[in-house]
Design goal:
about 50% helix, 2 domains, 6-stranded antiparallel beta sheet, Pdz3 Domain, 12 helices, alpha+beta, about 425 residues
């Protein structure tokens, strides 16, 4: 029965069943709690639901009173990050767009969502620009939102800015899709503070995300160093040989691992150096001798051949596909290796999403911290009305740059 149902369901539903269940349960919860929600935006097209509480406010106050000198230095760093990040984002978007067009890339990014439009039956997870597995996305988003808003809240409390409420928010397009957190400072109270203090409060959220991104990166490096004790790197593996390759017909198996490279009386056994030679030094005029092993069959052969020049790619090629590092757990370390693998995956997504969302919040858009920082900066030179007009202009320019970066084909000179 389940097999019949599986075959009838569209691929899109199969690929994203966890996400759809999450949206359904979240919608039911929000409907039950509808009297406690505040609606912002235009339902159902683009809106935010805020579930206001006092959660975390006492903790923010407590933290801000401990080591006030430390938090003041954090505020100074928040000002630097806020101003430099906001000012540089538009030039960075312009540079990124030119780089993407110059390199001929189809896209420079996209929405970070656990939505996969590939074919689940074939094991395909392609089809979206930036797909994140559901549980990595959910846990990371909740963590990122929490530390981001705590950053705002602690620095706001440090400068005696009243926090009216805190809680959870849900960004929606028809159905609620993205969970978030929020801290609601008293904006009138914040506006009375010195300009640098306002920027410090606004920049503290992105700073918190960037700080944790650095922490997770250090942890990734630490796990990577430890993994040398539990893994063996056997070489450069491949899963297919092209029928136009000079190797075709010489190797009796497709799935195999290159364990040694001999070229011009030099023997290379380090997998990274073998891979680097393939990428950087390969020549269609230099013969190679490869030691190729199939560990499942416990067979090894030595093959001497000359790489073929590929005119379309304008470089010499061996003609192997599915190339990867053949890394396996050492005997007796299988469980430890699994822990290392899972830890690395979690740390990678926590690093990448913290860093990406921290930087994206510095974009000078209407709804981001960067947009509010830009407004405060412009207020130094002009009144509120003109400052907001400037924010709208820069926001529009940024939005256009983001759209054409995601889809460069929209540009008239790209096609």
């Amino acid at each position: 029965m389940l097999d019949v149902l599986y075959n009838l369901l569209p691929n899109f539903v199969i690929n994203n069943v966890e996400f759809f269940v999450f949206i359904l349960l979240l919608s039911i919860f929000l409907y039950v709690k509808r009297q406690n929600l505040v609606l912002l935006g235009s339902f159902p097209l683009l809106y935010m639901l805020q579930y206001k509480t006092t959660w975390g406010i006492n903790l923010m106050k407590s933290w801000s009173k401990k080591h006030p000198s430390f938090w003041k230095w954090v505020a100074y760093v928040s000002v630097v990050i806020g101003i430099v990040g906001t000012v540089l984002m538009v030039p960075f978007l312009i540079w990124q767009l030119f780089f993407i067009v110059d390199q001929g890339f189809d896209s420079g990014g996209g929405l970070v969502l656990p939505i996969n439009t590939g074919d689940a039956r074939a094991g395909d997870i392609s089809g979206v620009i930036f797909y994140v597995p559901f549980w990595y996305w959910l846990i990371a988003i909740l963590f990122i939102a929490t530390v981001h808003e705590f950053g705002h809240g602690v620095i706001a409390e440090r400068f005696k800015v009243k926090i009216k409420s805190s809680g959870f928010a849900f960004l929606g397009l028809i159905a609620p899709i993205i969970p978030a957190a929020f801290v609601e400072p008293d904006m009138e109270d914040l506006a009375k503070k010195k300009r640098w203090q306002q920027i410090a409060v606004l920049g503290a959220g992105p700073l918190a995300n960037i700080f944790f991104a650095i922490i997770f990166l250090i942890m990734i490096l630490g796990v990577g160093m430890y993994s040398n004790n539990v893994y063996e790197d056997r070489g450069v593996a491949f899963s297919e040989i092209s029928n136009t390759s000079a190797l075709y017909g010489l190797v009796p198996f497709d799935n195999a691992t290159i364990t040694q490279l001999n070229v011009e009386n030099i023997s290379i056994t380090d997998p990274q150096q073998i891979f680097s030679y393939f990428m950087l030094n390969l020549s269609n005029q230099t013969p190679l001798t490869l030691s190729i092993s199939n560990f499942e069959l416990d067979e090894e052969i030595n093959v001497t051949f000359t790489p073929i020049y590929n005119q379309e790619e304008d470089r010499a090629m061996i003609g192997i596909f599915g190339v990867r590092r053949d890394v396996v757990a050492l005997e007796g370390y299988e469980r430890t290796a699994r822990v290392v693998e899972v830890s690395s995956e979690w740390l990678f997504w926590l690093f990448l999403l913290n860093f990406g969302i921290g930087i994206m919040n510095l974009l000078p858009l209407w709804i981001t911290d960067g947009g509010q920082i830009l407004r405060v900066m412009l207020n130094k030179y002009m009144d509120e009305k003109r400052a907001m007009f400037g924010v709208h202009v820069v926001s529009l320019i940024s939005l256009v740059l983001i759209v054409v970066t995601i889809n460069p084909s929209l540009l008239p000179f790209v096609g």
